[in-house]
Each structure stands twice: as structure tokens, then as C-alpha cells.
Amino acid sequence: MRAQFVLSEIGVGLRRNLTMTFAVIVSVALSLALFGGSLLMSDQVNTMKGYWYDKVNVSVFLCNKSDAESDPNCAKGAVTADQKKQIMSDLDEMTVVDKVTYESQDEAYKHYKEQFGDSPLASSLTPDQMQESYRIKLKDPEKYQVIATAFDGREGVQSVQDQKGILDNLFGLLNGMNWAARAVMALMLVVALMLIVNTVRVSAFSRRRETGIMRLVGASGFYIQAPFIMEAAVAGLIGGGVACGFLVVARYFIIDHGLALSEKLNLINFIGWDAVLTKLPLILATSLLMPALAAFFALRKYLKV
Predict the structure, then answer these.
(1) CB within 8 A of 173, min separation 6: which ones?
(2) Contact 278, 247 (CB under 8 A)
(3) Does residue 254 contact residue 261 with C-beta atoms inside 8 Å?
(4) Of which family is this protein a member (predicted)?
């Protein structure tokens, strides 16, 4: 009987403050959708890091005759056969190096023509103007500085370049966007909490006569508070369900179908459904507990029981 009474009070409260209840549901749904989206964005960035960092190379570019005339790093002339042999020997002895690939001037010229054949500069270049290089795959991409320290400034070496630096700029941008989404999420959560508190206060005020009678007949404080807390929890849970729906639909239409980014951007390793599904229980639990706790503390202050 008591459970039936509490459930009936929940239904009455939700219908009585329908507009504010709807506002709570929408704000909770948007804030938790952003929350889930930011978590998935972090997973996506980490997945891309693991995928791309495993493929990046450190390139040791060697001096050619043209560099000897124009580049201070090559002031002592083009790289010699002995210098190349010593560089290769040193690379073989380094424990951080996984694999070394040599690229000749002809190969560099061929690759340049394949990538930038439409460039006006391509027609004026010749193979002897290209640089020989060693493409180094590291066991740990974070160990780039070991290679840079060992070869930067050495005779015959024009420069040492790390492809990871280019990716760091991209991932920095993605992380910045992720933090911006989290800031908006935090703002939406504050708005949702304020709406929940106000909804509970209005509901408690509109039913002050009933709660007064319940106090007189000896009802416990929790028994009086339970309908208000559960109203907020139910509204929040509905909002959490909507947020979960947003995430599932977004993953389906943006990555798998609709925009179908997984087909159009084959070079990106997108997160799978497992990453989405593992976030849904957290979102639902947050949507249930957050409004319930907000209502509990609001009642302690505004409802004298």
C-alpha cells in the first residue's frame, strides 16, 4: 500500500509540474549526451594515437650537393659513403630502433612526383636535388629525442624530423575540442541541477498541505521525501535514456551509415560499438543518482520534515 501511494504521488508530481519536468528531462539529456560524447571523443583520440603513433617514422635526412651550398648544417659538403655507413651502424646498435629503411635520391624523387606531381615546383626538380634519408621506426614513438640527440648536427646530416610532431598538433586540436565539449557539459549539468532543485521546491510547495498532514499523523521524514526524490530520479532517468539514444543514433549514422565516415575515411581507426555500450550504464546511473541527490539536499533545506 505504501509503495502504491509513493508511486501515485510520483505520477501526480510529474503531471502537476509537466513543463518543468520536461525542462529537466531535456537539460539532463543534453548534458549527459555531451558527457558521453566527451568520453567517446577521448576514446577516439586514444585509439587514433595508438593507431598512428605505431606508424610514424623518424626521418634522418642526409646532405646533398645542393644543401652543401645553401644549408649551414651541410657546410662541410654532401654526405660521404663512410658517414652513411657510420650512421647506419649507430642506428643498428640503438635499442630504441625497431626498423630502418633507406630511401635513395631516386626513390625520394619518385615519391615526391607521386604525391606532388601537379605542383609547379615538381617539373623543375631533378633526382640529384632530393635528399637521401633513413626512415626509422621506433619501438616507442615517445623516444624520438634519443634519435634527435644522436644525429642532429652530425656531419652529413641535414636534419632530423619526427612525424609525431605533426600528429601532436592534430591531437592537441582534438583534445581542445573535447575540453570545450566538457565545459559546455558542465554548464548544462549546472542548469539541470538548478532546474531539478526548483522543480522539487515548486512540487513541495504545491503539496505543503499534504505533507503537513503526513507530519501530523507521524509519517517519517524519508516517507514524506521519497515521492519528491523519486520524481526527480524518474525525470533524470528519462533524460538519461534519451542521452543514450542520442549516442547510439549518432554512432550509427555518423560512423556506420548516413555520413558513413568509416567508409569515407579509411585511414582513421574509429571506435567500435563496445566503446559506446560500455558508456551507457554510466550515463544511466548518473542520470538516476544526480537528480535524486540534488532533490534530497534541496528537500533538507526547503522542506521542513
Answers:
(1) none
(2) no
(3) yes
(4) Belongs to the ABC-4 integral membrane protein family. FtsX subfamily.
Cross-strand partners of 97:
138
Give the least confident one: 34-38, 70-74, 256-260.
256-260
Tell me the sheet residues that pair with 160.
60
- Mean pLDDT along residues 46-66: 80
Give this prediction's pTM.
0.67
User: pLDDT tens, 214-244?
Assistant: 666 666 666 667 777 888 888 889 999 999 9
Q: Is residue 186 part of a domain?
A: yes
Cβ atoms of residues 138 and 97 within 8 Å = yes
- In this structure, are 64 and 131 located in the same domain? yes
Using alpha carbons, list the distances in angstroms from residue 120 to 113, 116, 117, 123, 139: 11, 9, 8, 6, 38
Residue 78 lies in a domain: yes
- Residue 266 domain flag: yes
Q: Which domain holds residue 107?
A: 57-140
Q: Residue 145 falls within a domain, yes or no?
A: no
In the block, residue with C-alpha cell 581507426: 269
| Contact (Cβ atoms closer than 8 angstroms) between residue 40 and residue 272 | no
